[in-house]
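As practice, study what follows.
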Amino acid sequence: MQFKHPEILYFLFLLVIPILVHLFQLRKFKKEYFTNVKLLKELQLQTRKSSSIKKWLLLATRLLLLAALIFAFAQPFLPAKDSKAQNNELILLVDNSFSMQAKGSEGELLKKSIQDILENIPENQTVSIVSPSKSFWDITPKSILKELQNLQYTSYSFQPDYLLSQVENKKPNTTKDYIFITDGVDVSSEKTTDLVQKGTLYGIFPKAENSANCSIDNISISAITDSFYEISVSLSKNGNVTDNILFSIVSDSGESVAKSTISFEDDKNEKVLKINVPKKDFKGKAILEDNSLPYDNTFYFSLSKPKKLNVLVIGTPEKNNFIRKIITPDEFQLTETTLDQLDFSSIEQQHTIIINEPENITPSLSNTLLAFYEKGGNLIIIPSENSNVQNLNTLLSQLGNLRVNELQQNEKLITEIHFEHPLYKNVFEKKIHNFQYPNVQTYFPVSGTISSILSFEDQSLF
């Protein structure tokens, strides 16, 4: 047995005092002679014996009480069986990830954990504190009181193996005891299991009172109209979220752009919210207001007005009039040129190339267009009545499984729109099946395994 305050044991000398008091109280009885009365003699003997026993018991009780009080103040304890471990360095691995913002019964988990460290570690105890974002080596907690109390939350997750490797690199060839302080559900690994088996790893796992939480996972543009962006907000929940949650979009200037309340269905943990915002440059954030973790309630995003797409039209000016009505200057940067004046170096800067009614496509242009298409460019070919079909098919065979046949001179109705084609995305508000069918007088029959945009009345490709 050892004592935390052995100097208090000197007070055991005070046990002499009750002994002295007892000795001074012992008196010899003075003899008084009476007549020979047997009853009085027996009574005298009993009184002397009982008085002596009581005094010795009282002395023993006083001595034991005083000794017990002195031993209590000296704080006895039994030393650890493994006496070698008393010289081990103490390493605290503290989780300061955003999840430690959750509130327990006594406040935020991280702040309460730091408070426990300051209160329970002796003032002169040297420790090292390692967190995912910051480390303190060979310090006493009181010496860095402000730094610990102002330790910020971080987006870095609590990874025990990484932190243990960091400690080993900093302190090789030393024996250490580790204490984990984290709300992580599963921090087990090969390294931690080995430390647990050696008896040098201990864990403190604070728990949040409310495990239910909502978060904003992603924001993307789902549709574009003339005046608005339709944005899709992906939300998710963890736990039982029953209350309606306020959602808002706020610009950097503090202007509220949109507000809504959301609720989750009981059997679904994900939800997509559709919101329209003005079609203009925007910088701001989406905000959720729930009563749980705050770090995942804000999502910053920006919207930029689309840059004008570069469109090159190869054809004669008089035939390009209808293209100018479609390719308007508010969304496109239109460049027109004839085939003989084409600047091949400008093709790489284009997003889309329209070849309008070519009679013949030269091999050099064909190779350039093929390279442009393979790099992700868009290519539109509008044949003319005088186009060389064989020449067209040479290019089309290199672009894909597509072939045009000789020009046909008969009338046909266009009766079907294939709404599922990607070209029609966000074009129609609803599917239309009963409309005034347009017709053609001449056309090139098309064959091949391609996705159709329009179909004739006989289901052939337009």
Remarks:
- The first strand starts at residue 2 and ends at 3.
- The chain has four domains: 2-77, 84-204, 213-303, 309-456.
